[in-house]
Specification:
Length: 407
């Protein structure tokens, strides 16, 4: 045959004559395997280059995006990796179909084919996941967890099949034998099993989505969810660091998801100003006259004064009368300023209320919702409100409580 090579001539040319016929035969087989492998790889190389150039041109002309993703993920290139083992196995059966070690050689080729085929399937799954992520629905229901589970099954199936090929047993018999190692497998794949179950719960109940802002103090996570996979959830914190949280911990432990705020019509503002209790007093006529000049308070004061006059008839003691206080009128002023602020959503709950007095004064809480939810703009809206309230407090003869300076 054309494949038969006179190995003795080769070694006599190299001045390395081999006298042992068995050794010469073995070396001849090895040389022919090398030649066949070289031909197979060269054939695959030229075929892949030609086909890929043509395929790239076709893909660019199509309107669909999935073929671009398959090309970018090297799916087609991976398929060409199946050609060398198939070519080598076919060619060697023709050349040495009756070789005593042909069966062992064939097993190695089958293992090679299985590994490459498994790699192709994994690459296809990555491409499918990437295509799916290009659609808006992927934000709410990512499939990466399921893709990773399928990858595990594919890799496990490849490994089990390769082992069964080498030991000459059916994969089913091998799986039956693995039943004895179920406890060990459960231990090895504990994180994968917990992650898969947790991932199904997270996605089916929509507990976490990509792009959600979550806070999980136990894992130092406070930022945006970047990725949800079988083992971990990646969170980009606001300081640009990345925190990886085990997927099952998002089911077993508590965390805060700010999606409800992001999907609502407003972002809550809830902050207090501590008022010095010693600065709270009844308003004098002069103070009322001064505050009455304000367009914000004029209507309220003109409405409330007749009511107070009517209620105070026949009462001559200050302890029995109902009178305006600087803190009370300041609360009314704050409420009206909130109502006039275009950046606040007045369709949602808003109020200015007193909290329990403490050693640090009387907390006066501002509770409302900003129409603007973006962090930087939201903080500006909140700061503008308190900047103004703090600046006008002296006009109400109120003081902020703060610890005395040591200087």
């Amino acid at each position: 045959m054309i494949w038969k090579i006179n190995i003795s001539k080769w070694f006599s040319w190299l001045n390395l004559g081999i006298k042992d016929p068995e050794t010469a035969s073995l070396v001849e087989v090895m040389l022919q395997i090398a030649v066949i492998c070289l031909i197979a790889f060269l054939f695959t190389l030229f075929l892949r280059k030609g086909v890929m150039r043509l395929l790239a041109k076709v893909v660019k002309r199509t309107k669909t995006k999935w073929d671009d993703v398959f090309l970018d993920e090297h799916v087609f290139q991976r398929v060409f990796n199946l050609i060398p083992p198939l070519f080598i196995d076919f060619a060697f059966k023709i050349v040495y179909g009756k070789w005593e070690h042909i069966e062992l050689f064939h097993r190695f080729i089958v293992a090679w084919i299985l590994v490459v085929a498994g790699y192709v399937i994994v690459t296809v799954l990555d491409a499918i996941n990437r295509i799916y992520e290009s659609y808006p629905v992927a934000r709410d229901r990512p499939i990466k967890v399921f893709v990773q589970v399928i990858k595990i099954f594919v890799v496990s199936a490849v490994v089990i099949t390769i082992v069964s090929v080498f030991i000459g047993e059916s994969p089913r018999n091998l799986l039956v034998g693995l039943g004895a190692f179920a406890a060990v497998l459960m231990l090895v794949f504990k994180d994968a099993i917990l992650g898969f179950v947790a991932g199904v719960q997270l996605l089916s109940n929509q507990m976490v989505r990509i792009g959600d802002w979550i806070v999980m103090p136990s894992n130092n996570a406070n930022g945006t969810v970047l990725e949800i996979n079988l083992y971990t959830v990646k969170v980009q914190n606001w300081d640009m660091t990345i925190t990886t949280v085990p997927t099952y911990q998002l089911v077993s432990n508590s965390f805060t998801n700010w999606r409800g705020m992001q999907e609502s019509a407003g972002r809550r503002i809830m902050r207090s100003i501590n008022i010095d209790m010693n600065s709270v007093h009844f308003l004098s006529d002069e103070e009322i006259a001064m505050l009455r000049k304000s367009d914000v308070l004029k209507g309220y004061i003109e409405d409330i004064l007749p009511v107070l006059t009517e209620q105070n008839k026949g009462k001559g003691d200050v302890l029995d009368e109902r009178r305006l206080t600087n803190l009370g009128i300041f609360r009314q002023y704050a409420v009206r300023k909130l109502e006039a602020n275009p950046n606040l959503n007045m369709d949602m709950t808003y109020m200015v209320r007193q909290l329990q007095p403490s050693a640090t004064g009387i907390p006066l809480e501002i509770y409302c919702f900003s129409r603007i939810q973006e962090w930087v703009a939201y903080e500006k809206v909140q700061s503008d409100i308190f900047d103004h309230l703090l600046a006008v407090m002296p006009y109400f003869h109120l003081r902020i409580y703060q610890y005395p300076s040591k200087l």
